[in-house]
Write a structure and sequence with these properties.
The complex is a heterotrimer. Chain A is of the alpha/beta class. Chain A has 2 domains: about 5-195 and about 210-235, Thiamin diphosphate (ThDP)-binding fold, Pyr/PP domains (Rossmann fold), CATH 3.40.50.970; about 240-350, Rossmann fold. Chain A has helices at about 10-20, 35-45, 55-70, 80-95, 120-125, 145-160, 170-175, 215-235, 255-270, 290-295, 315-320, 340-350; strands at about 5, 25, 50, 75, 100-105, 135-140, 165-170, 175-180, 205-210, 240, 250, 275-280, 280-285, 300-305, 325-330. The radius of gyration of chain A is 21 Å and the shape is globular. Chain C is built from 2 helices and 4 strands, in the order βαββαβ. The relative contact order of chain C is 0.39. The chains are: A alpha/beta, B alpha/beta, C alpha+beta. β9 of chain A pairs parallel with β3 (about 65) of chain B, so a sheet runs across the interface.
Chain lengths: ~350, ~240, ~70
């Protein structure tokens, strides 16, 4: 299979096009600008449409319209712009529309910085917008995985009629790695006969809507959506375990942080400390059971969550570990990236304290 | 005898929830009549606003989207870019279009989106109980301008048609009224022109309809019609503000 | 000859139609109310109706059907 050297942001664009996405609505924000630029160049070549919207809010609403019309559609932004999109994402989930939303995370809160961060974990996995709903959240760690998860994201979105968020960070967006687009096996799509494409004489109108003014109707709608979430939890959880088999400390990390941690694991082993990694790939649904199971093993003495934030995923790690073993946290924020030496020092502190 | 006037096919028979005398009902019917006369029911997709007309999807017999407040022109853009041969219309009030949705309507117009917007200007926020709108007139009493709109504090009302008419992408911009039958007839013609403008691919079209809100104006339906004629039209002149080809 | 029919249950008694009729024959039925509690509009002097449909055009609730 042919491999090309691509920048992460551009690989997202090519993956989307390979997945049949022909509509992109976005707005410039660092560090994801190469993605809208790539779509502006590539989509017309494929007979697709690129629109630079007047704001991230407008872009997510264009996504709503395009998704409701039955198309595969994507938008992207970075942290502050994703905040702007939250109402629209809530509407998309409530109206049961499929789409892919890419967040190339940067330092926050507020205008923050343009260096990478992972401080949008809560926003992505605990809602972000109002109401009872979840986007499916995918966290790639390499550019190849980024491309594969973007393609899978479109399938997941269509299968479950739910928004999918691909959570990257500035490092992943900016770096370049070899990637191929032929590897992902797409799922068989189901027809979108629910789409509002124009009411022909043979059917009732299709209404794309999240307003249910009768509370029982709204509850029924939400319960139906949560039935989908149960199916997603059952079938779609993805994670990687690395060197956990006799680990005394298990690190939880996702995205680019997991790559730094893998580097550290080798160095810790050389110093006689057995460290493993659980890398959640779906952040929602989160692989709680994986943590519960590993926490039950005698050789595991402690967990450490390493994130580019003040500690967000660590709360889900704690839920999974369920009190069986201590859970520690190490992180940097504001765009600072945890360094291998610092993580190793934390590991030694934990190992020494037992 | 033959029926010469009845419910248009593009209107469902759901009774309108609007207040007695509210002109939303007239405008809904005019839009539906135009859809019927142009023969586009099967390819029309409408976008309902947030406002009194939030349930418009119950009243038009065509595929519809419910949009977030102010965002209908963006939703319409998404739809029209995916389905360029459909007739896409938004139906929006003055809070939706002239307050929170100002960016969306200006940019849909300036991009020349091939969509049609029906803009209901009743100088107040109806659904939420009568607050001041960007279109509320100086001195007009509302729940958030209880002493009358004070232009020193709240500024002056916005004339949407005149503003949008400055944009090259706007192809047909017209303001009409529905306070009596001759004006209703003219309003329907304007709506038909706006939809035709879209079908002919000329660009963005908008019809601003001066409308009543008897409940929140604190008037009878008949007094409200007169208020449109005597107080709104002098500030919001009727006519075509922009017409391309 | 012409005839107008009022779907009285839909009428909200707004009286807009009474202003539109060029013959002045559309009046509110003072002696009865519909199930919503409104006095519905009506035409009692149908012989004078020309079927112009002005009343139907101004009605916000699609109450009126006009035949000619």
């Amino acid at each position: 299979m042919e491999k090309v050297l691509m920048k992460g942001n551009e690989a997202i664009g090519e993956a989307a096009i390979q997945a049949g996405c022909r509509y992109f609505f976005g707005y410039p924000i660092t560090p994801q600008n190469e993605l809208p630029a790539y779509m502006a160049r590539r989509l017309p070549q494929e007979g697709g449409v690129f629109v630079q919207a007047e704001s991230e809010i407008s872009a997510i609403n264009m996504v709503y319209g395009a998704a409701g019309s039955g198309a595969r559609v994507m938008t992207s932004s970075s942290s502050p712009g994703i905040s702007l999109k939250q109402e629209g994402i809530s509407y998309i989930a409530g109206a049961e529309l499929p789409c892919v939303i890419v967040n190339i995370m940067r330092g926050g809160p507020g205008l923050g910085g343009i260096q990478p961060g992972q401080a949008d974990y809560f926003q992505a996995t605990k809602g972000g917008g109002h109401g009872d709903y979840h986007p499916i959240v995918l966290a790639p760690s390499t550019i190849q995985e980024l491309a594969d998860l973007v393609m899978e994201g479109f399938d997941l979105a269509d299968d479950y009629r739910n928004p999918v968020m691909v959570l990257g960070d500035g490092m992943l967006g900016q770096m370049m790695e070899p990637v191929s687009f032929g590897g992902y096996q797409s799922r068989t799509p189901s027809p979108k006969d629910w789409a509002a494409t124009g009411k022909t004489a043979d059917r009732e109108p299709n209404i794309i809507n999240s307003l249910f003014i009768d509370p029982q109707e709204l509850e029924d709608r939400v319960l139906h959506i949560y039935e989908k979430y149960e199916a997603i939890k059952e079938k779609e959880i993805q994670y990687e375990t690395y060197h956990c088999e006799d680990a005394q400390i298990i690190i939880a990390a996702y995205g680019t942080m997991a790559r730094v941690v893998k580097n550290v694991i080798g160095r810790a082993a050389a110093e006689g400390i057995k460290v493993g990694l659980i890398r959640p790939i779906t952040l929602w649904p989160f692989p709680y059971d994986v943590f519960t199971d590993w926490a039950a093993r005698d050789h595991v003495k402690a967990f450490l969550s390493v994130e580019m934030s003040m500690g967000q995923m660590v709360e889900d790690v704690r839920l999974g570990v369920n009190g069986q073993k201590p859970v520690y946290f190490y992180g940097r924020t504001g765009g600072m990236v945890p360094e291998p030496e610092a993580i190793l020092a934390e590991i030694k502190k934990i190992a020494g304290g037992e | 005898m033959a029926i010469v006037f009845a419910r248009p096919r593009s209107l469902t028979d759901a009774p309108f929830h609007y207040c007695p005398g509210c002109t939303h009902g007239i405008v809904h019917r005019l839009v539906a009549e135009v859809i019927d006369e142009l023969g586009i029911q099967e390819k029309t997709i409408g976008i309902a606003p947030v406002g009194c007309a939030v349930f418009a999807y119950n009243y038009f017999d065509c595929d519809m989207h419910e949009a977030a407040h102010g965002r209908a022109p963006a939703v319409a853009t998404g739809i029209k870019r995916v389905l360029p041969d459909r007739a896409v219309f938004t139906y929006q009030g003055d809070g939706d279009l002239a307050s929170i949705g100002t960016a969306e309507i200006v940019h849909a117009a300036t991009r020349g989106e091939q969509i049609t917007t029906i803009f209901i200007n009743n100088a107040i926020y109806g659904m939420t109980g009568g607050q001041m709108a960007p279109t509320t007139l100086p001195g007009q009493v509302t729940t958030t301008s209880p002493y009358g709109r004070d232009t020193a504090v709240a500024g002056h009302p916005v004339r949407v048609c005149e503003m949008l008419a400055t944009l090259t992408g706007a192809a047909h911009i017209e303001r009409v009224s529905v306070h009596d039958v001759p004006h209703i007839v003219k309003a329907k013609k304007a709506i038909k022109k706006a939809f035709t403008c879209q079908l002919e691919g000329k660009g963005f079209s908008l019809v601003e309809v001066l409308s009543t809100c008897p409940s929140n104006w604190g008037m009878t339906p008949l007094e409200a019609l007169d208020w449109v004629r005597d107080t709104m039209i002098p500030y919001y002149p009727l006519g075509v503000m922009k017409e391309v080809g | 000859m012409a005839n107008v029919r009022f779907d009285e249950e839909r009428c909200k008694g707004c009286e807009l139609c009474t202003t539109a009729c060029p013959r002045g024959i559309v009046v509110m039925a003072a002696e009865r109310i519909n199930s919503k509690g409104y006095h519905p509009a009506q035409v009692t002097d149908m012989a004078r109706c020309t079927g112009c449909a002005a009343c139907a055009r101004i009605c916000p609730d699609v109450v009126i059907v006009v035949e000619r």
